[in-house]
Amino acid sequence: MPRTVLRLDASARKQGSVTRDLTARITARLDPATILHRDLADDPVPQLTEDWVIANLTPEGDRTAAQADTLALSDRLIGELRAADTIVIGLPVYNFGLPAALKAWIDHVARAGVTFRYTADGPEGLLTGKRAIVAMASGGTPAGAGIDHASPYLRHVLGFLGITDVTLVAADQMALDADASLGRALDQIADLPPAA
Questions:
Q1: Fold of 4-190
Q2: Are 196 and 86 a contacting pair, CB within 8 Å?
Q3: pTM here?
C-alpha cells in the first residue's frame, strides 16, 4: 500500500468524465494513507511567463523576493510530486494530445536542477523510486497508435523526471464501443497491485 498518492485530474468535464471516474477508482484501489488531490481544471496552473522563465534561470541564492514568489506555485507542485509514492494522472485525449491544463502542470514541475539535471551522460531524472498510473480516455484515438500523441508524450516526460514505472489504464475509442472500452479499463484497475 502506498503511503501517499498524488491524484491529478485534468478533464474539463466534471459530470460524466471517464478519466475522473478512473482516477477515483484507481486511488481507491491503492488505498493510500494520504491522498493529495489536485484538480487542474478547477484550479488551473497558469501558463509560463517571461518573469517565470527568468526567475527559474536565476540561481536560487540570487533570486529576488519577487522571483521567489513567482516560483512559489511551481515549488508547491514539485513538493506534492516529491511527497507522493504513486502519481495517478487522468489523461483525457483532446485532439490527439493532452489537455493544456496538464501540459501547464508539466511545465511547472519539469525544472532543470530541481526535478532533472544535465550530466555528461545526458539528462538524469531526480524523481526516482516512484510509480505512476495514467488513466487515459479517448473518443476515437487508440492508445499507443501513431495518432496517440498524449500517452507516449506523458510516459516520456515522466521517465525524463525519473519516474519509469508507468502503467497505462486505457478506456480508449469510447466513441466506438463505450461499454467494452470502459470494461477493459475496469479490468485493468482490478488487476492493479495495491503497491509497486
A1: Rossmann fold (3.40.50)
A2: yes
A3: 0.95
